[in-house]
Amino acid sequence: MPLVPAICTQCGAQIEVDDTCEAGICKHCGTAFITEKAINNYTTNITNHIVNNNNFAGANVTIQSDAEDIEQLIKRAKTFENLSEFGKALNVYRELTSKYPMDYRGWLGIIISETKDMTEIGISDYTHKNMLQNFDKAIKVANLTEQENILKQKLKYEDIYNKLKLRT
After folding, report:
1. In this structure, is the dihedral angle defined by the CA atoms of residues 26, 31, 34 and 38, taken in order, positive or negative?
2. Which residue from 28, 98, 132, 134 has the least number of CB within 10 angstroms?
């Protein structure tokens, strides 16, 4: 069973597949995929690195840009959200904010994942402070149009939080 690198056609996770099989199941999102398509999705990610003294003659190398990597991470996190696997989505968003802190979607994704799409808001002061910090980070790195949307989401969050706080 020779395993070869591939990328899930649904969530974008890097996987290894048996190239003798026609299809497989992604271990990350559970989606079925055609092996050939997953293998074709595989790219060698050379981003922001200086490569010296390497001979790539005859190699099939595709350079993946930061934008493509960001979009793959977002797609993977959104897939987990759609599957209600908020813990896994949170891990992807944390990876996104670690690698690309300038993308507001990572900061918002952390909020969405930690609050399970605003359905489970913790009322501790510590949790509330962290959520507000993530909103502020998202606002700082977003463009003007997105800042307005983030502010609306922040107000919604604060309204829910304040109502919950009054109940206790």
Report:
1. negative
2. 98
Coil, strand or helix: which one is 120? coil
Helix, strand or coil, per DSSP, at residue 14: strand
DSSP E strands in 60-164: the ranges are none
Looking up tokens 């490569």 gives 51
Gap between the Cα atoms of 65 and 162, Å rounded: 42
Distance separating alpha carbons of residues 76 and 7, to the nearest angstrom: 11
User: Which has more confidence, 77 or 29?
Assistant: 77
Among 44, 37, 49, residue whose Cα is nearest residue 62: 44
Dig out the tokens for 83 from the structure.
């599957």
Can you read off the two tokens belonging to residue 77? 């996190």
How far is Cα 46 from Cα 64, in angstroms, rounded to an integer?
6
Question: According to the model, what pLDDT value does residue 31 have?
Answer: 82
Residues sharing a CB contact under 8 Å with residue 86, sequence separation 6 or more, in sequence order: 80, 112, 113, 114, 116, 117
Tokens of 92: 């992807």
Q: What is the average pLDDT value for the chain, to the nearest integer?
A: 82
Tens of pLDDT, residues 66-105? 677 899 999 999 999 999 999 999 999 999 999 999 999 9
